[in-house]
Amino acid sequence: MWNRNKKEEDIQYRPSSPAPSASEQSREAIPVSAYPTRQTEYGSARVTASIGKSLVINGHIQGKEDLVIDGRLDGNVDLPENRLTVGATGHVQGGIRAREIVVVGTVQGNMEASERVEIKKGARVIGDLKAQRPVIEDEAYFKGNVETIRIDTPKPAPKPQQPAPPIVDAQAAPETKPEIKRG
After folding, report:
1. pTM (2 decimals)?
2. How is the chain split into domains, by residue range?
3. Where are the alpha helices (H) located in the chain, listed in sequence order?
4. Rounded-to-integer distance, Cα 138 and Cα 70, Å
5. Maximum CA pair distance of the chain?
6. Closest Cα partner for 148 from 162, 161, 135?
7. What would the pLDDT profile of 5-26 be if each residue is shown by its tens digit?
Protein backbone atom coordinates (compact mmCIF):
# COMPACT_ATOMS: atom_id res chain seq x y z
CA MET A 1 0.00 0.00 0.00
CA TRP A 2 2.72 2.43 0.90
CA ASN A 3 5.09 1.38 -1.84
CA ARG A 4 2.58 1.03 -4.65
CA ASN A 5 2.84 3.01 -7.76
CA LYS A 6 0.06 5.57 -8.34
CA LYS A 7 -0.80 4.07 -11.74
CA GLU A 8 -1.38 0.63 -10.25
CA GLU A 9 -3.90 2.03 -7.76
CA ASP A 10 -5.82 3.78 -10.54
CA ILE A 11 -6.02 0.60 -12.54
CA GLN A 12 -7.14 -1.54 -9.60
CA TYR A 13 -9.91 0.74 -8.37
CA ARG A 14 -11.16 2.19 -11.63
CA PRO A 15 -14.58 0.76 -12.49
CA SER A 16 -14.72 -0.76 -15.94
CA SER A 17 -16.98 0.96 -18.45
CA PRO A 18 -20.00 -1.04 -19.56
CA ALA A 19 -19.79 -2.72 -22.96
CA PRO A 20 -21.60 -0.79 -25.71
CA SER A 21 -24.94 -2.23 -26.74
CA ALA A 22 -25.47 -3.85 -30.14
CA SER A 23 -27.40 -0.84 -31.44
CA GLU A 24 -24.59 1.53 -30.42
CA GLN A 25 -22.02 -0.72 -32.11
CA SER A 26 -24.00 -0.91 -35.34
CA ARG A 27 -24.60 2.85 -35.32
CA GLU A 28 -20.87 3.49 -34.83
CA ALA A 29 -20.03 1.10 -37.69
CA ILE A 30 -21.92 3.21 -40.23
CA PRO A 31 -19.85 6.19 -41.38
CA VAL A 32 -21.58 9.53 -40.96
CA SER A 33 -21.10 10.27 -44.66
CA ALA A 34 -23.48 7.37 -45.46
CA TYR A 35 -26.39 9.49 -44.28
CA PRO A 36 -27.25 11.98 -47.04
CA THR A 37 -27.58 15.54 -45.82
CA ARG A 38 -28.19 18.86 -47.43
CA GLN A 39 -27.88 22.44 -46.37
CA THR A 40 -31.14 24.25 -45.83
CA GLU A 41 -31.53 27.90 -46.60
CA TYR A 42 -30.94 28.63 -42.91
CA GLY A 43 -27.58 26.87 -42.90
CA SER A 44 -28.43 23.83 -40.76
CA ALA A 45 -28.01 20.34 -42.20
CA ARG A 46 -30.93 17.92 -42.21
CA VAL A 47 -31.12 14.23 -42.91
CA THR A 48 -32.79 13.09 -46.11
CA ALA A 49 -35.90 10.91 -45.73
CA SER A 50 -35.53 7.33 -46.90
CA ILE A 51 -37.56 4.24 -47.72
CA GLY A 52 -35.59 1.17 -46.67
CA LYS A 53 -34.94 -1.81 -48.90
CA SER A 54 -37.39 -4.07 -47.06
CA LEU A 55 -40.31 -1.62 -47.39
CA VAL A 56 -43.06 -1.91 -50.02
CA ILE A 57 -45.35 1.11 -50.44
CA ASN A 58 -48.49 1.35 -52.57
CA GLY A 59 -49.63 4.95 -53.02
CA HIS A 60 -48.70 8.51 -53.84
CA ILE A 61 -45.78 10.30 -52.14
CA GLN A 62 -45.52 14.08 -52.06
CA GLY A 63 -43.50 16.38 -49.87
CA LYS A 64 -40.87 19.04 -49.42
CA GLU A 65 -37.89 16.89 -48.42
CA ASP A 66 -35.23 15.03 -50.33
CA LEU A 67 -36.02 11.32 -50.56
CA VAL A 68 -33.98 8.15 -51.09
CA ILE A 69 -35.91 5.03 -52.16
CA ASP A 70 -34.16 1.71 -51.57
CA GLY A 71 -37.38 -0.31 -51.32
CA ARG A 72 -40.33 -0.71 -53.69
CA LEU A 73 -42.88 2.01 -54.48
CA ASP A 74 -45.97 1.41 -56.62
CA GLY A 75 -47.29 4.91 -57.15
CA ASN A 76 -46.33 8.44 -58.10
CA VAL A 77 -43.74 10.68 -56.44
CA ASP A 78 -44.21 14.47 -56.38
CA LEU A 79 -41.28 16.44 -54.92
CA PRO A 80 -41.20 19.58 -57.11
CA GLU A 81 -38.59 21.44 -55.03
CA ASN A 82 -36.42 18.52 -53.95
CA ARG A 83 -34.17 15.65 -55.01
CA LEU A 84 -35.29 12.04 -55.41
CA THR A 85 -32.73 9.23 -55.46
CA VAL A 86 -33.74 5.70 -56.44
CA GLY A 87 -31.04 3.56 -54.83
CA ALA A 88 -29.45 0.39 -56.23
CA THR A 89 -32.10 -1.81 -54.58
CA GLY A 90 -34.90 0.68 -55.23
CA HIS A 91 -37.80 0.06 -57.62
CA VAL A 92 -40.40 2.68 -58.55
CA GLN A 93 -43.38 1.86 -60.72
CA GLY A 94 -45.12 5.17 -61.40
CA GLY A 95 -44.49 8.74 -62.46
CA ILE A 96 -41.84 10.90 -60.83
CA ARG A 97 -41.76 14.70 -60.66
CA ALA A 98 -38.92 16.41 -58.78
CA ARG A 99 -36.33 19.18 -59.04
CA GLU A 100 -33.58 16.59 -59.47
CA ILE A 101 -33.82 12.82 -60.03
CA VAL A 102 -30.96 10.32 -59.68
CA VAL A 103 -31.62 6.69 -60.64
CA VAL A 104 -29.29 3.87 -59.64
CA GLY A 105 -32.01 1.19 -59.41
CA THR A 106 -35.17 0.63 -61.51
CA VAL A 107 -37.91 3.03 -62.63
CA GLN A 108 -40.93 2.10 -64.75
CA GLY A 109 -42.74 5.33 -65.47
CA ASN A 110 -42.27 8.83 -66.79
CA MET A 111 -39.85 11.21 -65.10
CA GLU A 112 -39.95 15.01 -65.14
CA ALA A 113 -37.34 17.21 -63.47
CA SER A 114 -37.08 20.98 -63.45
CA GLU A 115 -33.28 20.74 -63.33
CA ARG A 116 -31.74 17.35 -64.13
CA VAL A 117 -32.29 13.62 -64.40
CA GLU A 118 -29.25 11.39 -63.98
CA ILE A 119 -29.43 7.69 -64.88
CA LYS A 120 -26.36 5.99 -63.43
CA LYS A 121 -24.39 2.97 -64.61
CA GLY A 122 -26.39 -0.23 -64.00
CA ALA A 123 -29.73 1.58 -63.65
CA ARG A 124 -32.82 0.47 -65.58
CA VAL A 125 -35.43 3.00 -66.77
CA ILE A 126 -38.48 2.36 -68.94
CA GLY A 127 -40.44 5.53 -69.60
CA ASP A 128 -40.17 9.04 -70.96
CA LEU A 129 -37.74 11.55 -69.54
CA LYS A 130 -38.22 15.32 -69.49
CA ALA A 131 -35.53 17.54 -67.96
CA GLN A 132 -33.43 20.62 -68.43
CA ARG A 133 -30.23 18.53 -68.16
CA PRO A 134 -30.67 14.79 -68.85
CA VAL A 135 -27.64 12.57 -68.15
CA ILE A 136 -27.49 8.87 -69.09
CA GLU A 137 -24.26 7.11 -68.15
CA ASP A 138 -22.66 4.26 -70.09
CA GLU A 139 -24.03 0.79 -69.23
CA ALA A 140 -27.37 2.22 -68.07
CA TYR A 141 -30.53 0.80 -69.68
CA PHE A 142 -33.02 3.39 -70.94
CA LYS A 143 -36.07 2.81 -73.11
CA GLY A 144 -38.24 5.82 -73.86
CA ASN A 145 -38.19 9.36 -75.20
CA VAL A 146 -36.00 12.21 -74.00
CA GLU A 147 -37.21 15.81 -74.07
CA THR A 148 -34.94 18.61 -72.96
CA ILE A 149 -36.69 21.65 -71.61
CA ARG A 150 -35.32 25.14 -71.58
CA ILE A 151 -36.03 27.51 -68.76
CA ASP A 152 -36.47 30.92 -70.34
CA THR A 153 -34.76 33.70 -68.48
CA PRO A 154 -36.85 36.84 -68.26
CA LYS A 155 -35.83 39.33 -70.90
CA PRO A 156 -35.55 42.98 -69.86
CA ALA A 157 -38.45 45.12 -71.03
CA PRO A 158 -37.62 47.08 -74.17
CA LYS A 159 -36.77 50.71 -73.51
CA PRO A 160 -39.38 53.11 -74.85
CA GLN A 161 -38.06 54.95 -77.85
CA GLN A 162 -37.85 58.68 -77.50
CA PRO A 163 -39.71 60.55 -80.18
CA ALA A 164 -37.47 61.94 -82.91
CA PRO A 165 -37.17 65.73 -83.04
CA PRO A 166 -39.52 67.21 -85.60
CA ILE A 167 -38.07 67.85 -89.01
CA VAL A 168 -38.30 71.49 -89.93
CA ASP A 169 -38.62 72.40 -93.58
CA ALA A 170 -36.31 75.32 -94.36
CA GLN A 171 -38.72 76.84 -96.87
CA ALA A 172 -41.77 76.61 -94.62
CA ALA A 173 -40.03 78.10 -91.60
CA PRO A 174 -40.30 81.87 -91.15
CA GLU A 175 -37.15 83.66 -92.00
CA THR A 176 -35.29 84.94 -89.01
CA LYS A 177 -32.36 87.25 -89.06
CA PRO A 178 -29.74 87.18 -86.42
CA GLU A 179 -29.82 90.20 -84.20
CA ILE A 180 -26.57 92.07 -83.99
CA LYS A 181 -25.89 94.27 -81.02
CA ARG A 182 -23.78 97.32 -81.46
CA GLY A 183 -22.20 98.95 -78.66
Report:
1. 0.60
2. 40-148
3. 6-13, 22-29
4. 22
5. 130
6. 135
7. 555 555 555 445 555 555 455 4
